[in-house]
Amino acid sequence: MSKPKVLIAFYSRNGSTEILANAVAEGAIQEGAEVRLRRVREFVGTDVMSQAPGWVESAEEMNTKYDAPTEADAEWADAIVFGTPTRFGSISSELKSYIDTLGGLWFQGKLNGKAGSVFGSTSSKHGGNESTLLSIYTPMAHLGLVIVPLGYADPAMFKAGTPYGATHVSFRDSVKPDEDHLDVARFQGRRVTSVARGLLHTRIVGASS
Fold first, then answer.
1. Entry's Gene3D superfamilies (predicted)?
2. Residue 19 in contact with residue 182, Cβ under 8 Å?
3. Which of 39, 85, 87, 121 is the most exposed place for a label (fewest CB within 10 A)?
4. Of 162, 124, 135, 122, nearest to 13 (Cα)?
5. Mean pLDDT, the chain, whole residue set
6. pLDDT tier, 200 (very low <50, low <70, confident <90, very high otherwise)
7. Single pTM value for the model
8. Looking at residue 10, which CATH number applies to its domain?
9. In whole angstroms, what is the distance from residue 126 CA to residue 158 CA?
């Protein structure tokens, strides 16, 4: 059977969500996936970005490392994993802008039955990690994705993360994700890949019968 194809489309300003994204990718690869790691681009100008110290420099650095996600990436994938920092308890506008470009695929039904999952980070404790992940479940349901939560299906889940997806609190960007949080993200990559493989097998069997 061909490798499950996993798209990890994330937005990160200061690096915490980027680190989680790479851990999710690591777990997916461990489980045998082919991975595309993509960073969503800003849609505000440098005049706005320069008001937040380090934003321009961080964006330039990450944009040299990662391509921007495209509609073609979503069509290619067997699983789509979204990553976002929290913005007032909900999804970042940057990631939402990418999701909003998928309307054409949605209309054609080309996202139905793909696995979907989410992870995220926030600056402050109780800053909205869980509400942010749950807010992304709504557009995922509209897209027809099979939502893959983490539950407590791995020992890592009893140390960090949430049953909805991997998370991190950066305490105003002073703390990077530790091994406990990275273990949850790696588990998320493995779990999504495993579910995507099962869904892919079902589609292949159905097409040949």
1. 3.40.50.360
2. yes
3. 87
4. 122
5. 93
6. confident
7. 0.94
8. 3.40.50.360
9. 18
